[in-house]
Design brief:
By secondary structure, the protein is an all-alpha fold. The chain is built from four helices and no strands. Helix 3 crosses helix 4. The two termini are 23 Å apart.
């Protein structure tokens, strides 16, 4: 699903951080794949390869953290957009129903339970 909607600066920065982590992960895995190709240059090709795998695991951890931050940013922006689109609630029950609808939409998009999606959106 492609959108031309304006994103906040924070969301753009989070997207850039995810992209940077993905590129660093690809670089780590490329080094692991290439290690041992020039065993004359590498004093210990197995150590070089093992270090590249550890670097890759570190990058995966950073990628996961940055992806979680991006999810939080997108959830907050979606909640604000949904609130702007929704008509004014006539009663507290309608307001609760609107909030539950936003949580259900986020849960569906992330394929998680509503409780998890509600926790993610609690800070927004």
């Amino acid at each position: 699903m492609e959108s031309r909607a304006a994103l906040s600066v924070e969301t753009r920065e989070a997207m850039a951080a995810v992209a940077a982590s993905a590129a660093a992960l690809a670089d780590s895995l490329s080094r692991a794949e290439l290690s041992g190709a020039d065993s004359v240059r590498d004093a210990d090709p197995f150590r070089t390869r093992a270090d590249a795998f550890l670097d890759g695991l570190g990058e995966v951890a950073r990628l996961e953290a940055r992806t979680a931050a991006l999810k939080a940013r997108l959830t907050a922006e979606y909640a604000r957009a949904a609130e702007a689109l929704a008509p004014s609630a006539a009663s507290p029950q309608e307001r609760t129903a609107q909030e539950m609808s936003v949580v259900a939409e986020v849960a569906c998009a992330l394929t998680v339970r509503e409780r998890s999606a509600g926790t993610l959106g609690a800070g927004s």
